[in-house]
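Can anyone check this?
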Amino acid sequence: MYHALIVDDESHAVRGIQAGVRWEQLNIATVHVAYNIRQAREIFESHPVHVMVCDIEMPQGSGLDLLAWVREQYPRTETIFLTCHADFSYAKQALQLGSFDYMLKPVDYEELENVLEKALDKIRKDQEIVAFEEIYRHYYKLWEAHQPMVMERFWQDLIHQAIPSTPDQVKAYLEKQNIRFHASMRFLPVLIQVQRWHKELSSREERIMEYALQNAAEEQIARNVRQAMVVSIGARKLLAVIPVELPGTPTPAAMEEQCKAYIGACSGFFYCDLCCYIGEAVLPHEMLGMVHELQKLDANNVTRTNEMFVLNKMKKSGGPILLPQMKEWAEMMKQGTKHKLLAEVTRYLDSLRHVEGGINAEWLHIFYQDFMQMIFFVLHVKGVQAHQVFSKSLLTEKPEAALRSLKALQEWVEFVIEAAMNHMHSALENKSIVEKVKQYIAENIGQQALSRKDIANYVYLNPDYLTRLFKKETGMSLSDYMQQQRIECAKELLTTTVNSISDIALTSGYSNLSYFSTIFKRATRMNPIEFRKHSQQR
C-alpha cells in the first residue's frame, strides 16, 4: 500500500482532489493534506509519503522550495505539480528539481489518476531496483567472504586430482567458480609437514593445532600477498601457495627467511617438529607434479627436523649405505648382552646422521625388514613365539610411525630389543635346569668344540652332577642327546637346503666328514646322500 500527500493553500482545491481521485483503485491507503510548507514537512517527518501532489504558488513558500527540500531529505518520493499559470520558467525549474509531472489547474481528475498511476509504477520499479541492489550487495559481501573458501577448495581439488591437471580443465574450473586469477599465473608452493607433536594429542586436539599452524603460516609465509593461500592437503600437511607475479611477493631469499622464522615460532609456540619444503614457481595445472616432488623430499627426509629445504638446492644422495652386521646383533641377543647390543645399535644409527647425502625412506624400510628378520630368528632359536612378545599394534601401527624418521626408528628398535630380550630372560628364568641345557645346546649345536663343561658353566653346575641330573630327568646321557640333536640338525639341512655334505657336516658340529657319515648312517640307516635323495622323492 502507498501513501500520498496533497499540498495546497486553497482548501477547496484540496477537498476536490481528495474527493475526485479514486485512491483505493490506485492502491493508496492514506491521503495526507497540508496547507503550507511547514505542515508538509511535519507530515514527511512523521509519516511515509510515496507521492506528493503539490501546488507551486503558495503564500508561505513555493512548491518548488518544498520540492528542493524533499529531494534532499526524501529522494524516493515522486512529486506532481499543479499550477494556475502555464509559465515555462516554473515548468523548467520543476523538471530540473526532478518532479514527475507538471499539470495545470483546474485539473482533470481522471487525467490526474493516470499521472498518479504512472508515478506509482515508477516507484514500484525503483523499489525493485533498490531491492535488487540490496540483494546484490548482500550476496556480493557473501561472495567476497566466500572467495577464500572457493580458492582453498580449488587448490585442494587440484592436489587431490578432483580437477584434472590440464590447462583447459583448470581454466574452465576457474571461470566456472569466478576465481579471479588467470590460468597463466605462476605460483610458488611451500609444503609444510608436521613430523611429530611433542605430546600425545587426541584427533580433535590435533585438528585444532593444525588450524593454528595454518593461521600462523598465513601470517608469516603468505603475508601481504594478495591471493596467497595456505590450505590443508592431508593429515599434518599444509600447502602455502604464493603468486609470484603480484605486488608484495617476497624474493626467494626473503621466502627462505620467512620459512625459517615460521619453523622457529611453531617449534616454540605449538610444541611440534616440522619442516618446510620450497618448490619452484609453476602454472596451476603443473602444481600437482610440483607438490609430488616436495612430498618425495619429505618422504626421504628421515634425519633432519625443524629445517627448511629448497628443491633446486637439494643435493642428490650418495652411494648405497651398508647395512649392519645383523648376525653379530643376533649373537648378542642370544647371549643376553642387552646393554652391549643397545650400545652398538645406538652407535650405528647415530653414525648415519652424518652420512653425505643422507639416508632415505627406502633405506629405512630395508633396515626394518632385516632387523625384524633377525628378531624373529632369535625368538625362534629361543623357542619363543613372536605373538607372546609383540602385540598386534606393535607390528602394524608402531612400524608405520617408526618409518617416518631415523629418530623414530631408533626409539622403536630400542623398544623392540627391550621387549624381546626382557621376555626371553623372563622365559629362561622360569625354565628348569634341563630345559635351559636343551635350549643352550639348540642355540650352539653348530659349535664343534661344544663340551659338557661349557654346558655346565652355562647353568652354574658341576659337570658330573649335571650329567647325572640330565640322565635322571630325560633317560638319555648328555653326550647321546647332543649327538641326537646334531643328527636332527643335519637331517633338516639335507632336506631343506642344497648345501654340500661337507658344509652340512660342519654346520652340524662335525669337522670329520667320514666320521659324520658313519654316525649319520648308524642313526638313520642311510648315508647323507641316500637320505637327501629319499627326502626329495617324498
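Reply from J.R.: I decoded it. The mean pLDDT is 84.
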